[in-house]
Amino acid sequence: MNYNYTTMPSSYGPPPVITKLQPAPPLLPFMSDIALSCAVPPVVYWVLSTAFHYIDTNNFFEKYRLHTPEEVLKRNHVSKREVLREVIIQQILQFFVGFALAVLDPPEMIGAENLHVWNISQRIGWVYNTVLLLVGVNATGFNTKMASSLMQYEIGRQIVSTDIRWKLAEALYWYIIPVMRLGLAIFILDTWQYFWHRAMHQVPYLYRTLHSRHHRLYVPYAFGALYNHPIEGLILDTSGAGLAYLLSGMSLKGSIVFFGLSTIKTVDDHCGYKLPFDPLQLIFHNNAEYHDIHHQGWGVKVCEKITKINSFKLTITRTTFHNHS
Description:
With 325 residues, the protein is mainly alpha-helical. It has a domain of 207 residues. Helices cover 66% and strands 3% of the residues. A hairpin with a 2-residue loop joins strand 3 and strand 4. The longest helix is centred in the middle third of the chain and has 39 residues.
């Protein structure tokens, strides 16, 4: 095998030439990514909630129940039929909003990946050399040694490089940046929902008109996770997820993962079980047990008291500060 290091792409070499752009192939050969991004949330919702319903009806994991089946029947102020109807209405709204976002987004094209990687290598080249300089390593000598121990090969007319900076740029482009976009989308959605949810508890009109419907479920269960007033669902869930998708700059394929994970978290928060082996309940403090307390009448009052106490402490702190200044 021949080694041709002179044609190796680097952060200082010429950019690769784009010969042809074409639409990216879908994740599933029988379904477009647009259809998949719209289908994943309801499919995940009903598959996961049906699994929890099966656990309920067969009394599996009974020792991990947060409430007995009798409490579910007696304490909730809404029938399961009405819950199903409202959830389906919200999912129809989600489907059309998600479809509009996906259609309006420019189609994903492939063929310029190496150019994108090259652009990233341009940006990280000086960082890479600076780090080597700071740790006392000669960048030129280090790169030469790395090149002599790495293999380069040719696929058609396209050179695939093992230059360390190129590999770092590839890792950023294919893995790190998409994960960062996903993390940013989760942060945006969580922040959006936190402040809207807080407002709906603190503003009497919003609670009475919108959010009180969700709290008719004093004992939450999985397929009631999206039981909301349609306007609240549009504001909190649909608009929040759509805004996170747009602002994070993630791809349509990335949105499929994001929407799926968001749906899993929503259902899990309302599942009615404290499961010690559930990774979501172990990682996040706002888990099913936490959310169950929030749905209790006394739980809502506790939240309101905590808010008032914190506001009172803030007022005292501000008064003390002004008196001493």
